[in-house]
Task: structure prediction
Amino acid sequence: MKQKILLIMLLGIMIITGCSRSDMPYKEEEEMDKVQYQFQMETNEEKWSALYGTSCICHIIEGFPSDYIEQTALVYGRLRGLFGEPTYESMNYEDQYAYYITATTDDGKEIFLDVYSGSSGPAIGGQHDEETAEAARQLIQIILQTEPVDYDYVGFYLDGPSKVREGVKNGVPYAEEEEIDPEDEDYKELIRQMMGEDY
Result:
């Protein structure tokens, strides 16, 4: 029941934020056979500014399957399998992680993608043009074909408040949510980090 409530809230947030799952149609796998982009983590912090002011292009999970929450956990395991540790990870479940990715063409042109999990689930952000959209399409195909690695994440859903635990164990995703006392020390520490030490 709690997972259903969280799923409904994610759907509502997606509608409010306007990051539609139909904005960028998925292409058939055979259309993606010719790889045009190579993807890697962008470690040069000076290049991160290319992502400032960008926004959601598309979500990684198509639609809202009944096991959506487990699928979000699986996506993170697959991203870890592809790129290792994220650019950042947060205990705030609505700002869970981000990977800053450079997509490079054969002729050396670079396109920058923000692969993240925010308030409406795993998504890809960047500039809103066809080249960036195509790079995002290809990256999604690679993500969905990657074997996940095991991990364990614990964070907080602030609107509950609730504690969220998700991960992958032996290739199988799991996700749990439980209500918590607002006086929980880990929760209070997260709030202090977000609001300032005087909170």
